[in-house]
Amino acid sequence: MQEIYSLWYERRHSSSQTWTHVFPDFLPEDLKNLKRLTFCVTTFEKWARFDLSMQKNIITNIGSITTNEKPNITALHSPDIPNFVKEFSAKLKRKRVADITTPKYTRLKARMVNPLDFFEEVDASSNVDVDELEILQYSTVFILFLPRLKTVTPNLWSDMITNIITCSNRNPAFTYGRKATWIPTLIIKNDTGDFRKYHPTSDFYVACQYGPLLLGEVCSDKGNEVGRCRMFLQAAAACRIVNFMRKPDRNIILLAIYVNKDFEAEQYLIFQPNAATDLEVTIVCSAVFDLSIGQQAFELCFQLYNYAQELPAIFDGFDIAKKDTLARMQMTLWFTLMPSLTTVTQSPSSSASARAPGPFSEPSTQAALQQHGYQLGAIFRHRPHVARALQVKSATRVVVKLVKGTQSGEISLLRMLNSNEMRRDESNHTIPLLEVWAIDSDLILVTPRCAAFTESLSLWLDQATAFALIRQLVDGVAFLHRHLIAHCDLKPDNIVLAALTGDRHVHIWLYIIDFGLARQLSTGDEIIQGFRGIKQWVGPEVTDGVSYNPIFADLWPVGKMIRSLSRALKQQTLRQPVGDIATALMLPTPNERPSMREAGRRLDELQGGMQDTGSVNAAG
């Protein structure tokens, strides 16, 4: 098998690089789809400024819009607009059926201009699609919200718009997010060919398991409205992704809303005119609503209610058979690019001298690295003592970590865990230690560069891979505990994944890293004091300030990570018992938690009944 990250490095620096080189085991059709789904921005600095000029061949029909200019409304009756877009626009404006006999509707009608342009009035005996909650939302816009409009915060507008969608459509197939990240991760690339990951974040959104359907931003910087451009770029990527998941002739139209600095809601329709044949994404501004005028604010809410009614039909247009294909390609992309996608402090154009302060910014450290044959790369954000590097002679990409001499217990543990005897044990998931050498009184340790483990990873894992990673995590921690080592800082940041490719599969191996807080214990009953780790990833006994058993404390974060991974287990007879294991590991009373050995035994019992549902696999 070929290590993906080595292959990727070699091909990246070859003038003859092609997608076929990078993904040698994929069929031509797979490669075509993968290229369509990868949203690569070729200039990092322009991406940071959300400069739309770089997208002239991908995003069209946006006119002269820049970060500080308002859009021109596009006439949707133009012959250049596809019929499916015109039909969608008409559905947003369709009349809603209201009960004329209700007092709430009567009071609302008295405040409106031309109410019959929006409502078809019937009596109570007829079918209506406007309930009292919807009328209450409209009345809120007219009565309560508008007088305070000039002091409204972005969060309040996000809440209001999201509540409209949620109240009008409580379908569990959809998620309604506020100030959240939707997936998948986008890929951006600088002028030197280095890749970075970018997690799209929206002030509010509506999404389903196939991707986002509505995106929204609220202006937070009146001097430079970059939110609009960010929304365009993210919506273009999202449109391409969700269109790939659609049935034939069921092209998607994403709805996007930007609330600008003048409290106007700009409504955009994002679509691909010819999704089956090219990548072009068109963005048109279909309306602008002045939210300081009650009637226009109502019209926006009215269209959002109509949009919510269309969500089930939009969901029916997805091809469920394509979901597994997307998951397989996303995982392949993840593990092919992720070794070069870790978030760093250094911008792609920065020089060594411009790096953030830290041990690797010292000339003596950089000189020592060069003396040992390493070329220093970018420094990890929030970890200034950890950096990427390239072993020049072998062209191997690695991670280097500077450990203070007073903390050399970490090196001792890693050397022990990497001994020949320890490495022969397949349950040893400690990160391999490639090299150790001294700089003055400090030490440098060298380890392989691997892919990041994140909580959102479960959204792209197939069931077999997720279960195997759970098992590897339990085996790895059980191995440490068997040798009386408590890690004391288990969390997703300290789990990495190595990837191998072959037979058109991605094979994944889990490693545990960062033993800076680890303890070698004398007995399994040893008690320690003092906070270790971070608050979100430690059990209650660690934060209570009492003495505790660090072996028991390790169990709590393992349970939390298992709970996250279990979301990828589609088989209910598997997902529920694995979730029960996670819950048991997170019990508030430490000595009531099952040991890692016991958790592994329970997983063994479940593994025999697991159905194989995917093509991305974990080794072991």
Protein traits:
36% helix, nucleotide-binding, disordered N terminus, 620 residues, seven-stranded mixed beta sheet, alpha+beta, 24 strands, ATP-binding, Kinase-like_dom_sf, ATP binding, Transferase(Phosphotransferase), domain 1, transferase, Phosphorylase Kinase, domain 1
Helix content: 25-40%
Structural class: alpha+beta
Question: Mind telling me the C-alpha Rg?
Answer: 27 Å
Largest sheet: spatial strand order: 3-13-12-11-10-9-6
Strand content: 15-25%
Kindly state the number of beta strands: 24
Number of domains as seen in the coordinates: 3
Q: N-to-C terminal Cα separation, in Å?
A: 14 Å
Major beta-sheet overview: 7 strands, mixed
Q: Which term fits the overall shape?
A: elongated
In DSSP terms, counting alpha (H) and pi (I) runs of 4 or more, how many helices? 19
Poorly predicted sequence stretches spanning 5 or more consecutive residues:
1-27, 36-68, 338-356, 612-617
How would you describe the oligomerization state of the chains in this entry?
Answer: single chain
Could you report the average pLDDT, rounded to the nearest whole number? 75
